[in-house]
């Protein structure tokens, strides 16, 4: 258990103009010196907190990364091409950003002696055999994106074991919250936009797919715990430990928005994951992680 105190530290948030990264940067500026490295391909400079220094650049560029990491105690690596369909369309491009750039960042961290907390994903588990999914579950990613996240997750472990680099991989489940407005935003922001516009909410397939939706504030808390744990070198699921069906989600969104809109079913997404739910007991036991935001409360604050 740690107190997640980063007072006086220098931290770098890659992808800090994006959804998760901007919330993380915001939570750190009171106590730490915060740098953000982002190429603004899917982020917005306006979302970088005023007290953070924005370095506009590409995580693929070693010199830029080296300079941004100079003197950094902790690097939170959030930058990525986050679209699963884009990774299927252009796996080589995606691998450059998600795969090679992450390996390079770990390598630079050996020089700068920075702790690296990196954004892994539930996508590494592919179609889980059973839920909730513990960290030890079989890993059979269903997309290039998932393969890249799994590779990063494994590199983080190997860098910890081989080079004694302090690394923690956080396997995010489905994150939601304010500012999730990028081009590849999740199902919650799509449903919220539809309900608020008075349009039908469109559910892909039967809507019986389950997802574990975790609020971005809880993801920020997990990152802070990972940055300060006395025992780095591991990977942790970050979710809530419970799930809802997509159909239930549509109904909750409609209810919270107070919109009298129909729920329509459209064609299922090919190869969609049927069941997803995190077992968060390892993060709870080892990091002291405790998800605090219920789906209804989180949706209400997202709308506000
Ligand atoms: P996001 O797109 O909002 O943020 C990613 C940021 O990275 C963007 O600001 C983008 O401009 C930046 N970026 C992209 N390519 C870059 C490059 N080459 N150089 C520098 N910056 C670059 O996405 P997010 O939802 O905040 O995701 C953050 C991390 O969490 C990602 O690594 C993502 O794969 C992972 N993740 C997210 C979720 C989720 O539900 N949002 C789930 C699992 C994992």
TrEMBL record:
Protein family (similarity comment): Belongs to the NAD(P)-dependent epimerase/dehydratase family.
Lineage top rank: taxon: Archaea
NAD-dependent epimerase/dehydratase domain span: 11-239
Name this protein carries in UniProt: UDP-glucose 4-epimerase
Lineage, highest ranks first: Archaea, Methanobacteriati, Methanobacteriota, Stenosarchaea group, Halobacteria
Organism: Halomicrobium zhouii
InterPro entries attached to this UniProt entry: Epimerase_deHydtase (IPR001509), NAD(P)-bd_dom_sf (IPR036291)
